[in-house]
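TL;DR need structure tokens for one chain.
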Amino acid sequence: MNQQSRQNPTLFDLLGRCWQRPAPVASVNFDRQGSSVAFTTLDGTLALAPVAETEGPESRIRVSGDLGQMRILPRTSPPVPLTAVAVEEGQVPLVVPFHAGGFLVGTGHGAVRRVSAQGELSEDFFRLGLSIQALDHAVQSGMTALSDGEELCVLDQEAKIVGRSRATLPDTKALKFSPDGRFLAGLSGESLVILGLDEEMPVEGVVTLPSRPTSLHWNEQGDRIACGLEIGGLSIVDVPLGRTDTILDFPAPVRGLAWGVGGQLVASGAYRIAAWGMPEAASQALLTGHTGLILVEAVAAHPRRDLVAAGYADGRIVVARLGGRDELFVRPFGGAVTALAWSADGRHLAVGDAEGQAALVTFPPQLFK
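>> reply
TL;DR here they are.
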């Protein structure tokens, strides 16, 4: 850190705990209890950080008596080091929160293993024949879905098979349970496939998308699925009606999608935060933040407020109100933002970037009033 940044700390310096990883950060996940966050990197490692800290921003806020202005004092000590877990060298592990605490981790040699919030790696939770290509876990029901591209399995809380299928989802790239636990959606080639969750796993719907999808997200009500597209756009599937709306002409692939607390949809891949109201997404664009010359690379919708965090290719991170122009600048520059995630209570924002920086930003409640 140079002399100027020491004299003029940014909001990121004051609110964020930062760690340097040996490779770009691929994903970030909070555990179900909100006690830890997991950072995965392209070298195949997993690193865990505790969410709680001794020098939270609330303890460092000072308010001047004459003007009532708030300022945040810098931390006096460095953050607790990350706990690194060597899962598999050279391959990015798939990580999802586990209902009983900690995380499930899918590996390139076909195993799914449990990792505690403290970084303790257990024996195999389940094993398939080939590399795990897709993994999801429903924390409400405790069910797990996994695929190695040839075989799809659904497990109960004790890792017993309750559904199994071959060739239903070849070349599976993503799996997601619906929030109500009734359906399982998967991406296969250029198709979105929706399966029932009884023993036979019947196909409830197949949607052919305009290009290969990059991501898959159910809304909170479980009646719509949004898929980012490699050609620069997104498709929104109305599951009960079987109708698909597609929005194209993005300048870059849409790799980040998020559903807002009010049903809004937010996307990366443009030169501003792209957002829409629902259900008629294409006709209800929400002008959010400011237009610029740098692409939005990652988005994360706040779980309790009509706010969205956006990360840019130049490392900038902002928080904006959906449908509003004002932006809170959290980080002014850095490596291209590759991952963003809010904690369930909306107090913490986990960040990962292409230069290997992992960070956890804790916002005092006063900041969003």
